[in-house]
Amino acid sequence: MLKPVSVLALLLSAVTTVQAAQEVNVYSARKEALIKPVLDDFTKQTGIQVNLITGNADTLLSRIATEGQFSPADLLVTTDVGRLQWAKESNLLQSAQANEQLMRWVPANLRDQDNQWFALTKRARPIMYAIDRVKPEELNRLEDLTDAKWKGRICVRSSTNIYNQSMVSALIEQLGEQATLELAKGLVKNFARPPKGGDRDQIKAVAAGQCDIAIANTYYLAGMLTDADKSQVEAAKKVKVFWPNQSDRGTHVNISGAGVTKHAPNAENANKLLVFMLSKDAQQWYAEHNGEYPVRSDVESSELLKGFGEFKAESIPLEKVGARNTDALMLMNHAGWK
Amino acid sequence: MAILRSPGPFSGWRSITLTAATLLALPILLVTFSLSQPQWLVWQHLADTVLLDYVLNSLMLAFGVGLGAMLLGTSLAWCCHHYQFPGRSWFEWLLLLPLAIPAYIIAYCYTGLLDFAGPLQTTLRETFGWGYGDYWFPEIRSLGGAITMLILVLYPYVFMLARNAFRDQSQSLLEASRSMGQSPQQYFLKVAVPMARPAILSGTALAMMEAFADFGTVEYFGVSTFTTGIFRTWFGMGNHLAAAQLSALLMLFVMGLVLWEQYSRRKIQYYYQGHKRQTQARTRPAGLTRWLLFSFCSLVLALGFLLPLAMLLHWAWLTGPEQLDARFWRLAWNSFSLALTAALIILLLAMLFAYAKRLKSDPLINAPVTVAKLGYALPGTVIAVGTMVPLAWFDKSLDALLQACFGISTGLLLSGTVFALLFAYAVRFLAVSLHQVETGLARVKPSMDMAGRSLGLSPTGVFSQVHLPMLRASLLSAVLLVFVDVLKELPATLILRPFNFDTLAIRTYELASDERLADAAAPALLILVAGLLPVILLSRAINKETA
């Protein structure tokens, strides 16, 4: 009678001890191609094995929440601030240790005040215009795009997209609900077509003449300029970046970021990885390979990004942007932004 | 009546069947339970703004795809079955190939080609000096575009089922109808199609369910449907209850579809009419008609397969072979082995349920099976969450129990393993397999069981010597369809997979969703190749049986 029980116990203890090796488990909303090289470097330098699952941020959050205290996740990596803030509010994150370094490297508005999440890179969302049909002097603030002169000339992707949701959240935080609704309605009125496709598709539509102005993240333009497909490079060359709202609040900026999870079995290693991802090498890698802006002021952005020009970014604390997401989506529903 | 002994109330088979059916129904029931906490505020907001769009677009999409797939699939099946024309025997399996293309991939391909900024329209503009708004061109990114894309990859469901059904029709039927003075057209409309109706409708229902569940295509085309609405409500508004309630509403539509399909099948008992099949004498139409038939089949093949294939090859050519490293082949192996395992397990489950129903219709088993079948129309993400919750509950309860009894902590035993994936696939794709097995089994007359028994066969003997040979084509089709479906499956795999476990579909999606279509081409091509192999092998096996 005792025997099968002890065999079972032995098996079970074997299962549990496997996890004791030096490792760190990453749940990442960053696509594999854009995180694996950095993780491989980390393993090379520290000998700590990195296990990775990529996926949609929301479903990763659901998974962490469902797994609860047994969740193997150590570090959560997302590509926008809304999800990080959400993770914090759902009580899925813990404060990072080793935070002197992190505090020094990451500006205060780009991290959580309780150190539960930190920005890794910045992603700017400016206006992009057709060189041959729009003069940069015609452009100034995002709000000016609601003017009747832009009727049928603007392309933006769907409001299902998180970048638009975060942009509108930030606007609500800075302009208030009413003014943002006006702005959204005005934009929708000037859409050249119902929103469809991704950011690259908006840029391509500008290049092809379907619209004159697009709102898109810079790394999509950078990606097109370095694409293997020549037609993408051609299209990207017909388009230029304009930084809106330089005389007031600045251009909208979102982040990719990370936080250590609440029940992280390897919290210490997760902290090490977090610090590593903010190291100069890693920061430079992201700037070079995905056209994103480093969060550290002592790391330069890539030559390609410098070509888009310097700009002033929004300075509101990003955690407030994350908290506004639902309001933003409902507002866009009301404005008829599909 | 009970020729293969019907199981008693406490037999082992019955409890296994019942347990399996209940477990598979669980994730879907979980979604339904969300209705007990109505989210009035969100519903009010949705009703004021976007709900009508969701309902209308979803219905138009499903019915458009259903109608299109039915007409295209049935007519192609009839051409290949009834007529002799150049390349006919090739088209029999070539026309299945679009199955291997994920709907969102074909959508990317056609958008690349037909979009305003694409090569076709650009060439038109450059040739004629037109600008935006000077000319009319069909907008690919629209509801109509989405319907067309889905028809192109889903018609093979109808084609495959209809073709099997036509094959089973006895030659003497044709002769009888001819001798009564009916024209071939009349035979097609009045005899062949009505007799193949359960198969055709079954295929159509599958296509419609897949259309209801589609997310990738409609999202890319900017068409608001239930699935995009579920995602917006869940992720954008962070309200998973309201999202689950939207899913429950979607299931209501699908439930209607399933009941309609079952009802239409129940009206007549369709059984395979006795005779051993004679060699099919195909009609040889006049020269021009033969080439018309050839062109029709070629056109569908070109649009559904060759053109997207050419686009992918073009993109893959641009990025070069550097992607084909060892890790890439590992992905291919993961995809292939996972799809095959899932297809076989789901086939066993489907046979278990189909036989349970045939031997003794047991409402206690039928009810959860009907519920589990709805899984095919739900977006994979919803199923994945429905799977994750009960599995985590099981793991945590087991851990607590063992802690209390032996002081051992087991942590997560099933969550985050391949088991979780296979479970979710079973919920998602049971309907596909079950449809095939049930339509196959429906053609075996109960009198054949009796004949077999009276000739001294044991119940197992009836199964292996009477049923299996007759079911062969259906079972192979079931394996093939689920295999290809799992190969393409994305959302559930994305959420549930273990650490460091990627598939081709995941790699393709990650690159494509970053709008790096050229880079996504190589893994997408490999999905096609991995899907092609079984399509070719199995359709050969199916053909051999009828040769």
Automatic annotation (TrEMBL), chain A:
Repressor listed as a keyword: no
Keyword tRNA processing annotated: no
InterPro entries registered for this protein in UniProt: Ferric-bd
Pfam families: SBP_bac_6
Keyword terms: Signal
Highest taxon, organism lineage: Bacteria
Signal sequence segment: 1-20
PANTHER family: IRON-UTILIZATION PERIPLASMIC PROTEIN, THIAMINE-BINDING PERIPLASMIC PROTEIN-RELATED
Family named by the database record: Belongs to the bacterial solute-binding protein 1 family.
UniProt protein name: Fe(3+) ABC transporter substrate-binding protein
UniProt lineage: Bacteria, Pseudomonadati, Pseudomonadota, Gammaproteobacteria, Alteromonadales
